Amino acid sequence: MRFTKDHEWVRLEGDVATVGISKHAADALGDVVFVETPEAGKSFNQGDSFAVVESVKAASDVYAPVSGEVVEGNAALASAPETVNADPEGEGWFAKIKISDASQVEALMDQAAYDAFLATL
Amino acid sequence: MSDQALKNTPLNAAHRALGARMVGFGGYDMPVQYEGVLAEHRWTREHAGLFDVSHMGQAKITGADAIAQFQRFVPGDYEILKAGKQKYSLLLNAEGGIMDDLMAGKPDHDGLYVVVNAGNKDADFAFLNANLAGDATLIVLDDRALLAIQGPEAAEVMAKHEPALAEMGFMDSARLMLFGVDCFVSRSGYTGEDGYEISVPNADAERVWNTILEDARVKPIGLGARDSLRLEAGLPLHGHDVDATTSPVEAALTFALSKSRKEAADFNGAERILKELAEGPSRVRIALHVKEGAPAREGAEIADMDGNLIGVITSGGPSPTLGRNIAMGYAPPAFAALGTELKVIVRGKPAAAEVVATPFVATRYYRKPKA
């Protein structure tokens, strides 16, 4: 699993990246009450806002950690947004993206680097 | 505000010891949540929540002319307010705009005790200092903390500490010895629940806070849940739902305009306010159920069914009690009738909304049985 400085994560299987927000991000948001995930077929560049996550207090953009085309958005989050708090790096995934540039994934932080980054915050 | 050092309330260390997440609010370093906004919201609706609201401004206005002078800037009748009562009011500018909303009461026989919003208190107190004439003196009580205990079990919890508190009715205001110290107590709050606001000397705040928290029915509640609770109760937040451009008529706060004061028309902004009462305002605060999609928050636009933009949301979010999204905002009176179908536009997407009555969640204030 790889991470961005904006606290998204990426898990690559073949050329499809499953992406979500890290446990750190989910904990910082607090109770998630609404998630808007992208529809299949939409394309995003790395760094584009591709989803929205809302806590009781505020709405936050989620940025595409890699460029590519959405294969599937996690529709289950519409009716169960609390999954993002319960299992942010598993069942709480946001989308599966067919990546266009594998080197973007390689350039992201691994778990150890992300943990070290979190320690600096 | 953000580039200034945040101030601490006397309970700052207590919040940190409880593991609170702290944020800047109204110039203070305040707890936004302890265990989580939803859990705290629900606990307050079901049991009793304890809030640190020491960031709010407390003051006394004393002197023979205290009430007459204060009334020049508020539309409520404090002459006829009985001793031991308080009344919600609005600090008005010369144009009839709401500089702040406030509680003012008669807890003792020494003028008025006033509580104003944190973010406005410096401006409010400067204004009053500059404008109170005659024998009227503003005494800022910055030596006091303010705690609120709110929820259906609040009265039982507090009766254990002082049985006399159970005898107070909604909006009663008292000065009494509580926890061994001189306190101002009112039976009121900002959640729609029964409860009290308790003003204690700073030096005693942490002891009183911890003593109240010893009761298992009480949990500490942060500003996050305070906001969602007040939204459900339909209570406006100054700086968001009302501001210095909003009149009491636009804000749907006409209950704060006392009959005698309207007849006398002797308060700041009376001309505009009476004109709006007679002819209707150009916009009015409305409450909405947002029936689909994301929460509509401050800044989201309101459209009619033809897509014409007619107004804006001033606060909104999920209602934990109702399990649906609720909001307040402004629209022309033609769109303010209950049941009116409207659209709210969130991130470019129109979502169905309906004008509803406030409070969104029924209030449970304690009304004393008539003797």
Short synopsis of the structure:
The complex is a heterodimer of chains A (121) and B (371). By secondary structure, chain A is an alpha+beta fold.
SSE diagram, text form:
The complex is a heterodimer of chains A (121) and B (371).
Chain A: E1 2-3, E2 8-13, E3 16-21, H1 23-29, E4 32-36, E5 43-44, E6 49-55, E7 59-63, E8 68-73, H2 76-79, H3 83-86, E9 95-99, H4 102-106, H5 111-119
Antiparallel strand pairs in A: 1-2, 2-3, 3-9, 4-6, 5-8, 6-7, 8-9
Chain B: H1 12-17, E1 21-25, E2 28-33, H2 37-46, E3 48-52, E4 57-62, H3 66-70, E5 86-92, E6 98-105, E7 112-116, H4 121-131, E8 137-140, E9 144-150, H5 154-161, E10 173-178, E11 181-186, E12 195-201, H6 202-213, E13 218-220, H7 223-232, H8 259-264, H9 270-279, E14 284-290, E15 301-303, E16 309-319, E17 324-331, E18 341-346, E19 349-356
Parallel strand pairs in B: 3-13
Antiparallel strand pairs in B: 1-2, 3-9, 4-7, 4-8, 5-6, 6-7, 9-12, 10-11, 11-12, 14-17, 14-19, 15-16, 15-18, 16-17, 18-19
Helix pairs in contact in B: 2-7
